[in-house]
């Protein structure tokens, strides 16, 4: 299959040779790389080749080398390529069946490549879509030991993965999982980008990954949060609420309260612990996380007696999962963010420095890539909130029921005008005000003396929004 037949722009054509390696077809890729199936003529076996190809920075020239879109991208391109090479070197050090095995890496065509073993099967994300009926506690428990071993191997060597998600776990035909690449190149580009793009997967990244470097220490607990989010997604069908949103209002509802049918309390309790907001409250190692899963049921039931009784809002139907294209780029912009709403529990208070970082990061939270969707008619949509969830303001648009909750930062002396009508809305202790809106078109203005910031929204589906009004 040629690159054109596979509809992959900038891909190398079938038949292209790297010495003994011959490209056969494109098998995957995203905004930062292309993955090929290739044939090793020397050892007569199929391998995979990953090419560093950041489409926002470079294009394929006529001679098949990469050509920068502009000289200003040179620093970003080089940083990403160096990170790609360092990741290849790191993965080549490991020899664990649950980790991507790098055979070799090289530089050619003005970019870099890594050759790896070829893994059959599909990602956890694909598995969840195609075989949801096969996912059960027994299936998850079979999946975890090799996955634990792979992550623990990384941690024991003094490294973190920082990108564990459904997309980065491959389920082979023999049912054994393989933890795929670290995504180092795109994260390095994100760190250096003038657009301050944060290369994180919403729902899977803990709060410390949104903080300024060194403000909140990252460690094994960082990957454990992401792994907890993976398990939460497998069980409920959707990721937990975005961590920076939880800094404003913690909408996470513990699984031990929800008690999804067919899952034991020890497993649910372990996932809840992994998804604690404060790093110190999570299991501090893979071994500690694994031991929680085997916690005696009696101990967890004793814990349950200290939890509040589930309300009507806590037992509403599960939200619908939102499909998001990969890679998910969270960019600072004026678009709204879609999150998974569940009954609010409490507002978490973090250190002043982290609250400031979260306030900045909250503006960057865009679950659907804004750049990829700015030409669409409707804004990003999240799952439906519970009809019985408490509201802060009366619904607008007459007697129509509220369909969406909109959050925006509101400072002292600022006032909100909605469709030309002043609203008596006050910020909560978190510094964010909220509006409950029915379906319709809205223009939200924030007035501060003579300065006016505005944001237009179309509400046509249920959801929770975070907006950052800008200059009209």
From TrEMBL:
Annotated positions binding ATP: 50
PROSITE patterns: PROTEIN_KINASE_ATP, PROTEIN_KINASE_DOM
Domain of life (superkingdom): Bacteria
Record field: transmembrane: 350-370
Entries under InterPro entries matching the protein: Kinase-like_dom_sf, Prot_kinase_dom, Protein_kinase_ATP_BS
MF GO annotations: protein serine/threonine kinase activity
Alphabetized Pfam families for the sequence: Pkinase
Protein kinase domain mapped to chain residues: 21-298
Protein's recorded name: Serine/threonine protein kinase
Keyword vocabulary terms for this entry: ATP-binding, Kinase, Membrane, Nucleotide-binding, Serine/threonine-protein kinase, Transferase, Transmembrane, Transmembrane helix
């Amino acid at each position: 299959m040629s690159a054109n037949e596979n509809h992959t722009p900038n891909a190398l054509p079938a038949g292209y040779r790297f010495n003994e390696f011959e490209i056969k077809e494109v098998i995957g890729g995203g905004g930062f790389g292309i993955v090929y199936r290739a044939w090793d003529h020397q050892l007569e076996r199929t391998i995979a080749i990953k090419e560093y190809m950041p489409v926002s920075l470079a294009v394929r020239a006529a001679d098949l080398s990469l050509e920068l879109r502009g000289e200003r991208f040179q620093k970003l391109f080089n940083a990403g390529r160096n990170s790609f090479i360092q990741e290849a070197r790191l993965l080549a050090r490991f020899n664990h069946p649950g980790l991507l095995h790098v055979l070799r890496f090289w530089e050619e065509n003005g970019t870099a490549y890594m050759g790896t073993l070829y893994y059959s099967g599909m990602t956890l994300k694909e598995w969840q879509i195609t075989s949801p009926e096969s996912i059960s506690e027994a299936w998850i428990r079979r999946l975890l030991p090799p996955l634990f071993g792979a992550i623990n191997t990384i941690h024991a060597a003094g490294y973190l993965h920082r990108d564990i998600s459904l997309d980065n776990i491959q389920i082979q035909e023999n049912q054994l999982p393989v933890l795929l690449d670290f995504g180092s190149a795109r994260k390095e580009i994100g760190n250096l980008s003038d657009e301050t793009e944060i290369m994180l997967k919403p729902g899977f990244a803990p709060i410390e990954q949104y903080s300024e470097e060194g403000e909140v220490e990252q460690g094994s607990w960082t990957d454990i949060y992401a792994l907890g989010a993976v398990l939460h997604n497998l069980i409920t069908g959707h990721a937990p609420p975005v961590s920076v949103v939880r800094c404003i209002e913690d909408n996470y509802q513990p699984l031990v309260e929800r008690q999804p049918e067919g899952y034991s309390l020890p497993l649910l309790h372990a996932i809840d612990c992994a998804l604690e907001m404060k790093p110190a409250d999570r299991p501090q190692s893979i071994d500690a996380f694994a031991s929680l899963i085997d916690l005696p049921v009696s101990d967890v039931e004793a814990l349950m007696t200290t939890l509040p009784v589930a309300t009507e809002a806590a037992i509403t139907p599960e939200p619908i999962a939102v499909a998001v294209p990969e890679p998910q780029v969270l960019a600072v912009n004026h678009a709204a963010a879609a999150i998974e709403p569940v009954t609010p529990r409490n507002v978490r208070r973090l250190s002043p420095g982290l609250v400031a970082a979260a306030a900045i990061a909250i503006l960057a939270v865009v679950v659907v890539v804004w750049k990829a969707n700015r030409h669409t008619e409707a804004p990003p949509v999240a799952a439906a909130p519970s009809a019985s969830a408490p509201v802060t303001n009366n619904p607008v648009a007459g007697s129509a029921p509220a369909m969406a909750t909109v959050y925006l930062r509101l400072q002292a002396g600022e006032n909100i005008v909605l469709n030309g009508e002043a609203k008596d809305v006050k910020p909560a202790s978190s510094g964010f005000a909220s509006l409950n809106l029915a379906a319709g078109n809205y223009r939200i203005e924030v007035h501060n003396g003579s300065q006016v910031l505005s944001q237009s929204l179309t509400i046509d589906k249920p959801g929770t929004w975070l907006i950052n009004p800008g200059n009209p």
